[in-house]
Amino acid sequence: QVQLVESGGGLVQPGGSLGLSCAASGLSSGSYQMAWFRQAPGKEREFVAHIGWTTGRTAYADAVKGRFAISKDDSKSTLFLQMNSLKPEDTAVYYCAVKRTIYFTIVSPDYWGQGTQVTVSS
Questions:
Q1: What span, in angstroms and rounded, lies between the C-alpha atoms of 36 and 48?
Q2: pLDDT in tens, 31-79
Q3: Which of these, 15, 37, 16, 34, lies nearest to 25 by C-alpha position?
Q4: What CA–CA distance (Å, rounded) separates 48 from 5?
Q5: CA atoms within 13 A on the CB side of 39
Q6: Beta pairing class for 58-60 and 10-12
Q7: Measured distance CA(83)–CA(54) in Å, rounded
Q8: How far is the C-alpha of 56 from the C-alpha of 29, rounded, in Å?
């Protein structure tokens, strides 16, 4: 049974920083990819950042390159997203996602977290 639990969302001012966490359980074996997605009001869910759990390879959406950083803690089975220089357009519900595959792709994730709200406003 796989569970993904996000935390760290909240209200921040433009230019501020926020760190998100995703605690994963039930993924102790096999190869998999982990990623962050987000969905703003009235918009489709979009890719934010991706990391290969065993390789450490990363990829980012153009909109967040240079501002966001995805990382992981293998011993704690936890995924992180450090968000800096936040903009109002970053406002969205942020979701943790997992795909069971050895390949570096996050298309059609197998599991999703419940989401955590990030609001960037003055």
A1: 5
A2: 899 999 999 999 999 999 999 998 899 999 999 999 999 999 988 999 9
A3: 34
A4: 17
A5: 11
A6: unpaired
A7: 23
A8: 16
DSSP 8-75: --EEE-TT--EEEEEEEES-SSS--EEEEEEE-TTS--EEEEEEETTT--EEE-TTTTTTEEEEEEGG
> How many residues belong to the chain?
122
Do 106 and 98 touch, CB atoms closer than 8 A? no
User: Residue 97: pLDDT above 80?
Assistant: yes
Residue 72 tokens read as: 């992981």
Cα-to-chain-centroid distance, residue 44: 16
Instruction: Give the separation between CA 77 and CA 59, rounded to whole angstroms.
Output: 19
Candidates 71, 65, 66, 76; CA nearest to 51 is: 71
